[in-house]
Amino acid sequence: MTVDTFVALHARLAPVPFVPEVRLHQADDAIGLWEATEDLLGGRQEPPFWAFAWAGGQALARYVLDHPDLVAGRRVLDLASGSGLVAVAAARAGAATVRAVDVDPLALEAVALNAAANGGGVTTELADLLDGDAGGCDVVLAGDVFYSRDLATRMQAFLRRAHRDGAAVYAGDPGRAYLPADLGERVAVYDVPTATSLESVPERRTAVWRVA
């Protein structure tokens, strides 16, 4: 089975609860999908983050669609893209280019399928950029990326470098354990619907931060 077939088989195309303008391939069973992913790729794999609309990504996508001037006509980097929700929102809001980057090849297949289902406008890249820079992008977007200590440390350093290099940098986060205390300015707060199987609650208060 190819990875694109795997994504389409294990996730159904449906509107995102807080961003109904966007449809994503979303899964219902996180554990079952994780096991199927390990069977497909062999050995231990990261959880299938690409198969769910996480709260931070939903909030950031909502903010981008409600403030299209943030990305319109600009070069956008969606970092740790996952499902591609934020990348798709940026493309719909009129970004000149959208580059969706992730370290998971299944995520990039999901991004490609999701972008196609929403009119395209997104390119994908399999890479770990966190020790480098944003490649000249005008806007950097990161949804729900502070869920582990090591990732949060590297992510914060990357986002701050991108800001110093002149990019507008925004992150969406529902209060994950490793959200930096001094990330920047909180520009929006939403109550985002969530799957209780993932978050244990039906709704998470989620902020969008402008990194400084």
Write out key terms for the chains shown.
alpha/beta; Rossmann fold; 34% helix; globular
* Biggest β-sheet description: 7 strands, mixed
Number of domains: 1
What is the count of β-strands?
9
Helical content (DSSP H or I, runs of 4+)? 25-40%
In order across it, which strands form the biggest sheet? 5-4-3-6-7-9-8
Tally of helical runs: 7
CATH topology: the name is Rossmann fold
% residues in beta strands: 25-35%
Radius of gyration: 16 Å
**What coarse outline follows from CA principal-axis ratios?**
globular
* CATH-level-4 superfamily name: Vaccinia Virus protein VP39
Order of secondary-structure elements: HEEHHEHEHEEHEEHE
C-alpha termini separation: 44 Å
Mean pLDDT: 92
Low-pLDDT regions: none
CATH first level: which class?
A: Alpha Beta
> What is the CATH architecture assignment?
3-Layer(aba) Sandwich
Structural class: alpha/beta
Q: How would you characterize the overall build of this protein?
A:
34% of the residues lie in helices and 27% in strands. By secondary structure, it is α/β, with parallel strands linked by helices. It has one domain: Rossmann fold (3-Layer(aba) Sandwich).
Secondary structure layout plus pairing:
Layout: H1 3-10, E1 12-16, E2 19-26, H2 30-41, H3 55-66, E3 75-79, H4 85-92, E4 97-102, H5 105-117, E5 123-126, E6 139-143, H6 149-164, E7 168-173, E8 184-193, H7 196-199, E9 203-211
Parallel strand pairs: 3-4, 3-6, 4-5, 6-7
Antiparallel strand pairs: 1-2, 7-9, 8-9
